[in-house]
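REQUEST FORM: STRUCTURE PREDICTION
Request ID: SP-0412
Submitted by: Lab K.M.
Chain count: 1
Length (residues): 117
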Amino acid sequence: MRPGADAGTVYLCCQPVDFRKSISGLAVLVEQALGLDPFAHALYVFTNKERNRVKLLYWERNGFCLWYKRLEKDHFVWPRHPPGATVTLTVEELNWLLDGFDLWRQPHQYLRYRAVS
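STATUS: Completed
RESULT:
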């Protein structure tokens, strides 16, 4: 089960983190390194150096929740040249990322025709 559609904003941390960090370490990272509010209505997404693991941190009413996924084969596709420390995603895009899709790949070419022949 994944965090639901009411998750608010999804912040993807672009740099890999040390996965020995748990809730407290990741919350400090959100606040100090990313400059974001760990108590906000948001999901914070982290990966390890090998990109075969993902952790999601979020605040739920009276405590932090930590969601964790480990791939047995393959790796998650992460932004190659991020413009900053985080990338904002929708919950739908997060689910695509968790399913293995490359969100930063060029989409299909847009075609414009003037007539049907």
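NOTES: The two ends are 49 Å apart (CA to CA).
Reviewed by: T.R.
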